[in-house]
Amino acid sequence: LVEQELDDEAQCHLRRTITKDGRSRAYINGRTVQLAQLREVSKRTIDIHGQHAHQSLTRPETQRLLLDTVANTQPLLDELSSQYQLWQSIKKQVETQQQQSQDQTARLALLAYQVSELEPLELTDDNVKQLLHDQQQLAHASQLIHSAESSLHQLFDQEQGAAYDLVATALNDLDKLTDIEPQFANMVESLNSTLIQLDECGGELRHYLDHSHIDPSRLDEVETQLSVLHDLARKHQIEIEALPAHYQQLCDELAQLQNLDSHNEQLQQELVTKEQHCRDLCQQISKKRQKTAPKLAKEISQSIQQLAMPNGYIEFAIQDLANDHFNEFGSDHIQLLVSTNPGQAAGELGKVASGGELARISLAIQVVTAGSRHVPTLVFDEVDVGIGGGTAEVVGQHLRQLAEQYQVICITHLPQVAAQAQHQLQVNKQQSKDSTYIEVTQLDKAQRVEEIARMLGGVTLTDKTRAHAEEMLSY
Asked: How many CA atoms within 13 Å lie on the side-chain side of 306?
């Protein structure tokens, strides 16, 4: 409330209005709020115990919640719930990986073999291109050498009509006439450049011939290597030029699967660690339950013995879950057992207790555990159904005792209960021609006498019933 600027120091006023057309408005301390805000504050400030609430007491989850509320295990349960969800998530991942592990193992083995087969070849794009180039050169070495020799001969060594000599002669002839015809100067310059280029070409051809020779053994070596590569390319159904990229792809997939295998081991270890953490939390929760259960059972037993069950008692049976299991609520199976008659062994609550006994046990539990719920307002809606006489008076005394520490609102038809209250409201259903409505009246002392007398004796009141009512209110 402070964070939302809705606090009003010592008091908290909650209100919800519903109009005839079904619209509603929520208020906290006079300020309009969302209905969700009103619900949240209500859960923290009001605990409603209805006339049928005792029926849920036979459910295992209600019995566990009862013990956990008093044992104050909620912080541990919150942590366990979080860790349990993480454990479940990791467990699911591990199970999925285990289902896929057989296929992954086979694929891992195949990849390892394929990589080991290709790795010694030192495959790179440059290496493969160089081998293909070398094979072409070596296979056509004779033709290449012959062409180079022929070209060199025609350019320089031919006795008559060598290309270099012809260009040089033309250059000399034109150069002599440039004084007469200036246009020849450009031609002379071009021919001079041609001679230079022919010189360079001749040098390159001589260098090529000096370093070129027919090498059958090297050709066999290159063709052997290429044959291996072609076989592998066919095996992998790719072109030989694609082998380097394919090899890298296989290496990447192998590394990924190896990392995945390492990740699986990490997941397994994480699963073990997370499970141990959960079990440690379960053990802490179980210890708190075991410590609280006897004391709580004793207090509830004392309370129900005052509610016309003088020989009744309850006990908590706490056992480990089957097969060493645990869940988000711990590793305990919790049962609330009860005995209602002398010599009767304690048995399951739903099988042993009658409806009336169950209602009284439920009320006793509410009284005993009120302090553990830390809720300032307790509402009891006809929790005294099925009881009367002296038992009803004891119920009223229990509620009055609670009212010393909490705000207690009780809806009842029993005068023994109503007479114990510090304040009393009368609720009547009224009808008019057009509608039915509820009328709530706060009773003063005289009106309370009349109302208690009416609850005691019916419509026709006598002085005796009024005197009885006054006596009940005087306690």
From this structure: 17
* CB of 244 closer than 8 Å to CB of 124: yes
Would you state the pLDDT for residue 43?
74
Q: Which residues lie below 8 Å from residue 197, measured CB to CB, with a gap of 6+? A: none
Q: Choose from 176-180, 308-312, 418-422 the range with maximum mean pLDDT.
A: 418-422
Interatomic CA distance for residues 17 and 14, integer angstroms: 10
How long is the chain?
475
Q: Read off the pLDDT of residues 124-174 as tens digits, 9 standing for 90 and up.
A: 877 878 888 777 776 666 677 678 777 877 888 777 777 887 888 888 888
Residues 6+ apart with CB under 8 A from 249: none
Task: Give the span between the Cα atoms of 256 and 111, in whole angstroms.
Answer: 11
C-alpha distance across the termini of the chain, in Å: 39
Three-class HEC string of the chain:
CCCCCCCECCECCEEEEECCCCCEEEEECCEEECHHHHHHHHHHHEEEECCCHHHHHHCHHHHHHHHHHHHCCHHHHHHHHHHHHHHHHHHHHHHHHHHHHHHHHHHHHHHHHHHHHHHHHCCCHHHHHHHHHHHHHHHCHHHHHHHHHHHHHHHHHCCCCCHHHHHHHHHHHHHHCCCCCCCHHHHHHHHHHHHHHHHHHHHHHHHHHHHCCCCHHHHHHHHHHHHHHHHHHHHCCCCHHHHHHHHHHHHHHHHHHHHHHHHHHHHHHHHHHHHHHHHHHHHHHHHHHHHHHHHHHHHHHHHHHCCCCCCCEEEEEEEECHHHCCECCECEEEEEEEECCCCCCCEEHHHHCCHHHHHHHHHHHHHHHHHHHCCCEEEEECCCCCCCHHHHHHHHHHHHHHHCCCEEEEECCCHHHHCCCCCCEEEEEEECCCCEEEEEEECCHHHHHHHHHHHHHCCCCCHHHHHHHHHHHCC
Q: Is the pTM of this model over 0.90?
A: no
Q: What is the mean pLDDT of the segment spanning 32-46?
A: 82
Q: Which two tokens stand for residue 330?
A: 């711990």
Q: CA-CA distance, 151 to 148, in Å (whole number)?
A: 5
267 contacts: CB under 8 Å, gap ≥ 6:
90, 93, 94, 97
Point out which residues pair with 381 in neighbouring strands. 411
- The answer to whether 322 touches 336, Cβ cutoff 8 Å, is no
Give the phi and the psi of residue 361 in degrees, each rounded to 5: -60, -45
